Amino acid sequence: MLISAPVLMKAREKMEMLELELDEPRFGEVRVKMVASGVCHSCLHAYDGSHSGIPMPIVLGDEGSGIVDAVGPGVGHLAKGDHVVISWAPTCGSCKYCNLGFPALCLNTPAIGKANGDVTLFHHKGQDVYHYGPATYGSYIVVPESAAVKIRDDFPLEIAALIGCSVATGYGAAVNSAGLRPGQSVAIFGCGGVGLNAIQGAVSTGAYPVIGIDVLDSKLELAREFGATHTINLTRQDVEEEVKKITGLGVDATIVAVGSTSAMEQGYKILAKQGIEVILGLPNTGATFPVDPGILMQGERRIVGSRYGTGNPLVEFPKLVELAISGRIKIAELVTKRYDLDEADEAFRSLAAGEQARGLIVF
Ligand SMILES: [Zn+2]
Ligand SMILES: [Zn+2]
Predict the structure, then answer these.
(1) Which ligand is nearest to the CA of 281?
(2) 54 Cβ neighbours under 8 A, 6+ residues apart
(3) 194 CA distance to ligand 1 centroid (A)?
(4) Which of the pair, 51 or 60, is modelled with greater confidence?
């Protein structure tokens, strides 16, 4: 079928709205008519060229929601009309990590830009067009069944898109990766789409104090709205000093929801003994930060990575929907601005400028 999508031909250039041919769903795949797509920082890395190795032309988008439109042979759990949130980590069903419940660590993930079987499902005038994960900026997409997670159909499908990356990633980083417990202190670097969800996750564990750190006062205001009890503005306050003042010993956990290596370096230095730093922001390709092993060893401090909130989307997404319905987490409030599909360039500009918690492309 013919679908429309903004296509990135070259990094740092405006995307082109094109009509693409989309292959029919194959064995175990479903076609989804997209309803909304969040504008995620990982796609911005492809867009602005800060991550290398992205094949082009490519359709971006790793966070979306829609309605199942067609199912391929062998699909067991989904039917036409189901409301789904798209996961960028389908389970292969056979590797060690998928079987442990961590499909974001799958060993059989197709090459970047490709679908299972080393093919692209989008084509334009006989040329292959790549997909950035599920490519949620396509008006229709085809994904493996396990990448379309069924949710209740009485939940607003538009905002459910955000569950597919920023909500699951941020919430899970606090709850699963950091394993926060009531009364533990936590500092969150970066109060954008992912960081705000880490704050919500921290609040739901009973952590206190919950410290939001950012360079923009507008983001810190949002941090407070999402439950931060303290905020630090990096541009005019000294993080180490402020954290000492608030906590005495340092924080029990740091969650770094930005790609800044200086935040990552600062993040482990403000840890109390036995504290854990959780890194979920991705710096530019090749960027590193120095670590003093003495600080880690002498205080039994840990630095860990977190991918997709250390959880299984098939379990986490429906749970996050329930938490949103019960009012325990906010999702609609994350959306700063809505865009049409052909305004994706503007959405990226605004994201890069730090103007939004989350931009939402609505089809
Ligand atoms: Zn994402
Ligand atoms: Zn796997």
Answers:
(1) 1
(2) 11, 46, 112, 113, 132
(3) 9
(4) 60
